[in-house]
Amino acid sequence: MFISINSNDLNLLHFLEENISTLTTSILLKETNTRLLELNFTSSKSDIKISSLNQEIITISKPFHFTQILNKINIFQQNYFVNIGSIYYFPFIGTLSFNNQKSLLSETQNHILCRLVCFKEGIDKSILYKSIWPRDKDISENKLDTHLTNLRSHVLEFSNQRLNFKTLKGSIKLDIN
Amino acid sequence: MNKILIILFFFISSSLQALEFSCDFEEVHSNGTVNQGLVLLKKDKLRYEYLDNDLFIIFVDGAKKYIFDKKKQKTKNIKQNLEAIEIIMKLANQYPEIKKSYDEKGVKIKIEDNHANKFIKRISIDSKRAKLSLYLKNCILDKPINNIFFKFDPVFEYN
Fold this sequence. Notes:
heterodimer; A: alpha+beta; Arc Repressor Mutant, subunit A; 12 strands; B: mainly beta; outer membrane lipoprotein receptor (LolB), chain A; ten-stranded antiparallel sheet; 2 helices
């Protein structure tokens, strides 16, 4: 899952940047025009307050084990969702929620949807392909298209809503509104 | 301390010494108990940490093992009979051409791979003392882990 982090304490920020990317599968992004979980770490002498839009602030007292902060980040990730039309998409858990019903996406479906949601301007299809199947020597556009079709069918079947993909110059974009 | 877990730690640490990895883990015991945590391995060092603050962190440093009690905030050395561990280590040296199952002196171990990254997905242990499955998830295999996370006395804390 993609996240961005910020802090008033540069040492803390560097520490987090280095170790989140080493110890977790979360991907830190600094790019603008993305749709992702933004976490702010406000450090004081005695504690760190972690905040994010529409979520409760979590405080960790100093000193702390690094895993404590990973656990708290995990809570924010689990609660984070993006609206796709009237569907609630939880990228960290890989579920869709609609009309109080839940649907679990496959690992590949979630991988694709997570990237399409994150990159507002779209993502190059070859980059998307390589991120899913890094061991493939050749890129099979049909393979990716099949998974995109399956994802769209899954969402349509679950919510009766159609994902609107737009492809332009090798880039694919999801119109989520 | 569960001897089976000790076997497991040494199995992982001895079989994957060339690797450096971080994984979330989930222990599923036959009595229904589920424990989650984070396991880090770097050369002959291992950190096996339960997320539950009532539990502990186990450190392996070469041939020595330590346990850090999160509640008491104290580290102590662990001395266990390592006979079974030695057997497992001998088998584990075969990694990566590792057998998918072992049966040594009443301890049955089965290994399942994750097809996506070719890494271990599940280790099942079946013996008279315990039955459990250890699932490794969200593994990071190719990034160097900071040595501070293997410090056990005192355990590293961010201040």
